[in-house]
Amino acid sequence: MAVVEHYPALKRADAPLVSVCVAHYKGPELIATCLDSVLAQDCDFEVEIIVHDDASPDDSVTFLRKRYPQVELLVSEKNAGFCVANNRMVAHARGKYVLLLNNDAALFTDALATLATAAAQQKPPGILTLPQYDWESGELVDRGCLLDPFYNPVPNMDPERRDVAMVIGACLWIERGLWDRLGGFPEWFDSIGEDLYLCCAARLVGLSVQSLTESGYRHRQGGSFGGNKPQGGRLASNYRRRRFSERNKTFTLLVMTPTAVVWPLLLTHVLLLVAEGLMFSILRRDPRSFAQIYLNVLQEVANRGSQLRTERSKYQTSRVITFSCYFGHFSLLPHKLVMLYRYGLPTLTHNTNH
Does the record carry Lyase as a key word (predicted)? Predict the structure, then answer.
């Protein structure tokens, strides 16, 4: 059983409206700007800040305890992964609402006030996010995301569209009671795609997933996990990110897709995934990518067959929205084709980040 040390805040908010939860692994320079942006919020309600350090191999814990004594610090003895870290923080939180914030993100000064105002008007409560802007360029990255048929996120750039299929976990606002009702992040995902899973679960039971048009946050895309951002006009990622991404999107497709189309869609997805893996390994002369990323998806689905059937039964039994409503936030064009046309084949590197 993992040991989690707790370093309580020097001064705790009496009745926080919002608990800002920041999962951290390695790199004090990443989280400092993040926490400073939370402390600089212009809002008239109490906020508590919780940080989960996931066994960082550097001096992150010492840095946080010394520079941010007002932060509740949870320190894990072993690296548990992003999903476990966030679940632990929400379980520890006292606020009515929770904002999950990446350690490589920074909020605009009116972010919490904007989210709280929107949440108070949301009946029933759902999931919210803010416009995401690139850290270096300041350009708009997305206003939440739609999905393509194979559950690849498609950035929403339409300022008039608030209802989306999913929001990025780098800035995810949710009522704590709703988080508990939906079951939080699936810890068997480890990392990547947990935001997709949670948002699909919310939408299945008829709850809204929205991106606001006001305020925003800056994000070093890929700063905490590597990849996920074009560099020099090319896509760059790493084996670990791609392995988790392809696996967890497949899990989500299998569990969340309404029965009418799940099996033909899953079959098409698997065939395209195998074809993509073969093409990539041949053109990049990298046969290990097929085994480590694409073949791994099939192995994981087979290994977790019983669990996936149980999860599917749980979510499909509770589904209240229609087939057409569920897919109303999907785009028909496969997003991977768009990215291939724009940037060509991605380059893959090894990465040891959280």
Answer: no
Give the model confidence (pLDDT) of 88-99 as tens digits.
Answer: 999 999 999 999
3-state secondary structure of 196: helix
Strands (E), 176-316: 209-211, 217-219, 229-231, 234-238
Do 125 and 205 have their domain in common? Answer: yes
Specify whether the CB–CB gap between 230 and 343 falls below 8 A: yes
CATH code of the domain in which 209 resides: 3.90.550.10
Task: Write out pLDDT tens, residues 41-79.
Answer: 999 999 999 999 999 999 999 999 999 999 999 999 999
C-alpha to C-alpha distance for 81 and 178, rounded to whole angstroms: 22
Identify the domain containing residue 248 by its residue range: 229-349
pLDDT digits (tens, 9 = 90+) for 232-260: 667 777 888 999 999 999 999 999 999 98
